[in-house]
Structures are given as structure tokens and as C-alpha cells.
Predict the structure.
Amino acid sequence: MLNKIGQIALTVEDTERATAFYRDVVGLKYLFSAPPKLAFFDVGGTWLMLGPPEGERQERFASILYFDVEDIQGTCEEMKRKGAVFRTEPHCVHRDGTRELWLADFFDSEGNTMCLRRYT
């Protein structure tokens, strides 16, 4: 049975620019780079691989990554100071009486939508 995601691939146009964004702005743990223009990060045990479009058709793959954070407001403000552009401010999307789900969408250096998530 499948029970864990080991790696997520994200298509980027400029691997160096995207590597700097995810390392310096988002603050992910950079692991290593590998040919041809791939970069790997550790996100709590799941690897994020950044790389250019593949194959003759230059296929792009889109995903929204949801990064769990302890302090969504503070993380959002810190990322803004480092140059991140947010599509939405932190906002509550679900309340069930005991817990709340908060999200804040931002764009990465390649224009992909990503999201901060806080479930308390």
C-alpha cells in the first residue's frame, strides 16, 4: 500500500532562480543539484525536485504545494520581506468549533501558486 509521498516534482523555467527562491525566500532545506538543471530540497522528509520542462513537447506539470507553518501571519510577513508576492493574505477557510484551517497563497519565482497552511 502507498502511504508516503517521497518526492514531488515541480516544473520551473529557470532552475537557478527557483532554487534561490525556495532556499532563500521560502527557507526550505537545500539538498543538492544534479544534471540537467535539477535541484532537490527536503521538506520534512518529502523531497521537492525542481527542474525544467521535459521531453520533445516540453511538458509542464503543475501542483500546489501546501507548506505547514506554526505562525502563518509571521511566516507571510517574513516571506514578503524577502520578496515573495502573496495572492491572498492569511485567511480562515474552515472552522468546525474546535479547529480552524488558515491559508495564504503566494507565487513562486516561476509564477506557480503555492500556499502556506495552518491547521489549529
